[in-house]
Amino acid sequence: MNKIIDLKDLLKYEILDLYSAEEQIIEGLPAMIEKVNNPKLKETLSNHIETSKTHKQRLDTIKQTLMTDDDVKDTEGFFSGLFGGSNTVTSRGIEGLLKEAEKMMNEDMTEEAMDAAIIGAAQKIEHYEIAGYGTAGAYARELHLESIKNDLEKTLQEEYDTDDALTKLAVGRVNPIAENAVDTDDQERSDEESYDRLTNSVSIMTSSDPSPDEE
Ligand SMILES: [Fe+2]
Q1: What is the pLDDT of residues 135-168, one digit of tens each?
Q2: Is residue 28 in some structural domain?
């Protein structure tokens, strides 16, 4: 079994995982957008497809800078051991989150609840990206790879912006409407509590040291 030998290899792995994540997001978001009712949410998620395309292009440039000819040709080293002989990765994390979103969208629910659920699913995806870009940026900083670090931090900021836009949409409009639409006993949580819950999850993501081995 080959080993990940240093921080630069970890960075390569993270970049390939993020590349796969962006590809899957670009492919998966249209199905989510189709189920959305709120026009503002539709617009936010459509914009996210466009920013994801930019993120993928940045990762392409980073891959070219980072991958040596050895990585591409190597049949016995690090990449062959981890990726079945190819220098590509399928992000199982994003694959799972998109599958969960698909399962949830097949449930029978009101249009308003569907919008709230889609925001939740989109934010889980966003938090995965935030953790990945945060981790990769930290590796690049440690390795003094300035231009890669700058590109990763630019993308990280754009992921935070999307996440913030989704949070504002949820707490400002979509969740309160969904609360009234469902009208069951277990939906009695106040707007303030919902807001606290969302902002807590965002602040946990922001303050914690992004670690790839978190549960
Ligand atoms: Fe992205």
Answers
A1: 999 999 999 999 999 999 999 999 999 999 999 9
A2: yes
> Is 2 inside a domain boundary?
no
pTM of the model: 0.76
Residue 201 token pair: 């999850």
d(CA 20, CA 13): 11
**Number of domains into which the chain is organized:** 1
Distance from Cα 128 to the centre of ligand 1, integer Å: 10
Whole-number Å distance, alpha carbon 179 to ligand 1 midpoint, is 30
What is the C-alpha separation between 68 and 59, in angstroms, rounded?
A: 15
Specify whether the CB–CB gap between 131 and 196 falls below 8 A: no
Phi, psi for 192 (deg, rounded to 5): -65, -40
Specify the pLDDT at position 131: 98
> Rounded to the nearest whole angstrom, what is the distance from the C-alpha of residue 214 to the centroid of ligand 1?
20
Task: Please write the tens of the pLDDT for every residue from 83-117.
Answer: 444 567 899 999 999 999 999 999 999 989 999 99
Q: Which domain holds residue 54?
A: 7-207
What spacing in Å lies between the alpha carbon of 1 and ligand 1's midpoint? 32
- Which domain CATH number covers 125? 1.20.1260.10
